[in-house]
Amino acid sequence: MLTLLKLLKDGRFHSGQALGASLGVSRSAVWKQLQHLEAELGIPIHKVRGRGYQLAAPLSFLDADEIALQSSGSGWSLQVFDSIDSTNAEALRAIDRGVPAPLVVIAERQTAGRGRRGRKWVSPFAENVYYSLVLRVDGGMRQLEGLSLVVGLAVMHTLRELGIAGVGLKWPNDVLVGSKKIAGILLELVGDPADVCHVVLGVGINVNMQVAEKVDQQWTSMRLETGRMLDRNRLVALLGAKLQQYLDRHRKSGFAEIQAEWEAHHLWQGRAVSLIAGSSQTDGVVIGIDNQGALRLNVAGVEKTFSGGELSLRLRDDS
Fold first, then answer.
1. Active site (catalytic) residues
2. CA 240 to each of CA 67, 121, 152, 201, 243: distance values in angstroms, whole numbers, following the listed order
3. Per the confidence metrics, is the pTM higher than 0.85?
């Protein structure tokens, strides 16, 4: 089925006869595969009598060789999937199988993509980047301090280098353009964080997506911001380079050395916010973060610090 899709990826018309000849099947078999493509992947295909079949928009596919060609030599192993439940889930399975780290898992689509706090991450085929990096961590908790914030900086600078000028950060794991989410980060840990463990750094970036009815928050994409299609292979290669740069800084100097840079790009610095933890809510004004990446709030004149994976930060209506 994906072989047929790759024949159509240029966005031009192709006759059923020519497609069938390339695949070694009948025209009716081509028609059935096209119906399945539309139903399974949600990809609209134009069908015009006398001209053939055409994708509503051209597609570019993830290509391991192209990514390697554009990479600066990180040496990270790369696995590319056409379809998978989630790249983080596959990364965790790779750890269980004993696959050596560092390892990058990317996919054209996710059938069960997820974000923080169990939220669904909408993952249409061949439009965005779904990326997970597996790292082995030796030597304890210090190497985990502020790690998701470090990843956020790497993602932000990647997007800025590719033309998204207004992109910034929101504590703890969101990358925004104004009030709209363009990327998110999900970290998952296995093993003993006090000794030897593995961490999966999951990154989802809205790249060429233009329509997404099932997203339950304000969002945008690189294409919506720039008005042009982005090369996802270039994006994956550049993201790897930025991650390597920031992870090296973090490993050598700790998060405290990166703290001020992160605060300088925090879009909600000094804003009135509500911090949600389960059924409880704390209102305050964002002061910044501490040298371990925890959020610092001014709550009724008293500075308080908050950290944890189940916290949600929202702007107050009077902010």
1. 116, 181, 314
2. 10, 21, 13, 12, 5
3. yes
